[in-house]
Amino acid sequence: MSWLTFFITSHGTSHGVSVSEILAVRELDVDCGTKDDGRWQKMPQKSTEAYPYAFTVSYVERAWQHRWRCSDVTFHCLEGALCQQWVQTIREQLTALTSRPKHLLVYINPYGGKQQGERIYEQKVAPLFTLASISTHVIVTEHANHARDHLRTEAELKKYDGVVCVGGDGMFSEMVHGLVSRTQRDNGVDQNSPEEKLVPCTLRIGIIPAGSTDCICYATVGINDPVTSALHIIVGDAQPMDVCSVHHNNTFLRYSVSLLGYGFYGDMLADSERKRWMGPARYDFSGFKTFLTHHYYEGTVSFLPATDILGTPRDKTRCRAGYVLLQRTMGLYKNHHHVLQKHHPLFLLPEYKGGWRVIRGKFLAINAASMSCACPRSPKGLSPAAHLADGTTDLILVRKCSRFNFLRHLLRHTSKYDQFDMTFVEVHRVRRFRFTPRYCQSDSELDLRENGKRLFSQICRDHPACSCSPAYSSWNCDGEILPHAAIEVGCVTTPYNLLCKYTVHSESIQTPSLFPHFFTL
Ligand SMILES: CCCCCCCCCCCCC/C=C/[C@@H](O)[C@H](COP(=O)(O)O)NC(=O)CCCCC
Ligand SMILES: Nc1ncnc2c1ncn2[C@@H]1O[C@H](COP(=O)(O)OP(=O)(O)O)[C@@H](O)[C@H]1O
Ligand SMILES: [Ca+2]
């Protein structure tokens, strides 16, 4: 029934409104206009006389570049009973849409991006939730990891149909960690074991973009626009996504859903954290500075290629918002058949025929993109053909090259040219990988890094290869710094169902998609 479409005549024109995209319906007092939203609309005299009864439907209208907007259309009737019947029927249809959230727990990071999270929520999102009769409990975080810890220990999750993150990738990552950790603890799963299968989490996470990069939102929804995201949440969209788990010496470190980057993106992030006062512009400053330092890192990358899939990172196809509305489109994955039938482990069991491959070298960057990582700076992203929920990550190795060539590679992320079509760049679609730096990281060095310090002089003295390049970078894990250089990452999938979006395996889960971007699309 959610696809039932109403064609009604309004002022002589015909409108088709899919029930699944109706946000609200309200009756109008035609004589006086509507008081519902505080604004009075004077109806044209002619139609008022001819049709004394009317109701207004608020619905989703597709705008430019993946944006969604809320529009109103008013329908006029001759009879009051008929008008009420329409309103009642539409309300019943809306109530029957079980994938729509009714109660949401919202966390706002007032500190992320341009520090506009609270304003964005109050002005752009809350009025839409109210219109759609969604009740909310809003928590403005007071410190880093507030949302993670609240979700992990205190939140009464049974009361909610979903949680909403107002912030950037770091805030989203906090919430994924809170929800996933709680689910594993409740089910007795040991996160430290890379081989342990994660138990799916039943709650979805919606993202309202209010951060600096908003890559998770952009890559899933197609745009970083708070109104679009709010509307996806309201209509109950869901998008599974891969979640990689990162371990070090059999100790769980973190989950990652977008970028795991060593070298360029790790160094850039570490430098930019010290310049948070600059807002999102810190990434431009630190990016430029990191580009000039041109550090490379020696080590060994081992990976297990995803041999059971047909797609490759060099495909010209894109997997992102607007293309996959899994939950609402019914026919699970109907619109995503290229992934489903060809790549999805539900339909094709993984087989690791090729075995592990090992590559040693000097790298300017080692990036693992579990999704395209598209963002406003790079609308096609780090790995444009990466899939959102196929249980793989695209491993991009950028070997030591000249500054000029590295700049060409970076600039290609912002143009139509292929960033992988360069002799010093290779890309592999993998299920698992490991990185081991050439020089062993001592515990004391790790402790210092964990406390945010970096002794360059000592690192350089201990590093026989050169006098200016440090031996280790750190990992950029969805915008959070991981000081451990040696890591083990996994992307193995297990079947999941419509409501439980994670899969996991030793190293990767498919996360909740959430509302709207929810894992948005
Ligand atoms: C000289 C022109 C260079 C252009 C390079 C463009 C390459 C862009 C690739 C972008 C990849 C973005 C991956 C996303 C990472 C985010 O998770 C992370 C944290 O986001 P947030 O919490 O919202 O701040 N952001 C970053 O690590 C910054 C990446 C900035 C890239 C310039
Ligand atoms: N109230 C708060 N005060 C300080 N830091 C916070 C607060 N709430 C969340 N954080 C942290 O802020 C960091 C950045 O958040 P995020 O929303 O990703 O913004 P940005 O995109 O600008 O990095 C995250 O690491 C998160 O843990
Ligand atoms: Ca993927």
From TrEMBL:
<feature type="domain" description="DAGKc">
    <location>
        <begin position="99"/>
        <end position="250"/>
    </location>
</feature>
<dbReference type="GO" id="GO:0006672">
    <property type="term" value="P:ceramide metabolic process"/>
</dbReference>
<dbReference type="InterPro" id="IPR016064">
    <property type="entry name" value="NAD/diacylglycerol_kinase_sf"/>
</dbReference>
<dbReference type="GO" id="GO:0001729">
    <property type="term" value="F:ceramide kinase activity"/>
</dbReference>
<dbReference type="GO" id="GO:0016020">
    <property type="term" value="C:membrane"/>
</dbReference>
<dbReference type="Pfam" id="PF19280">
    <property type="entry name" value="CERK_C"/>
</dbReference>
<dbReference type="Pfam" id="PF00781">
    <property type="entry name" value="DAGK_cat"/>
</dbReference>
<dbReference type="InterPro" id="IPR050187">
    <property type="entry name" value="Lipid_Phosphate_FormReg"/>
</dbReference>
<protein>
    <submittedName>
        <fullName>Ceramide kinase</fullName>
    </submittedName>
</protein>
<dbReference type="InterPro" id="IPR017438">
    <property type="entry name" value="ATP-NAD_kinase_N"/>
</dbReference>
<dbReference type="InterPro" id="IPR045363">
    <property type="entry name" value="CERK_C"/>
</dbReference>
<dbReference type="InterPro" id="IPR057465">
    <property type="entry name" value="CERK_PH"/>
</dbReference>
<dbReference type="InterPro" id="IPR001206">
    <property type="entry name" value="Diacylglycerol_kinase_cat_dom"/>
</dbReference>
<dbReference type="Pfam" id="PF25382">
    <property type="entry name" value="PH_CERK"/>
</dbReference>
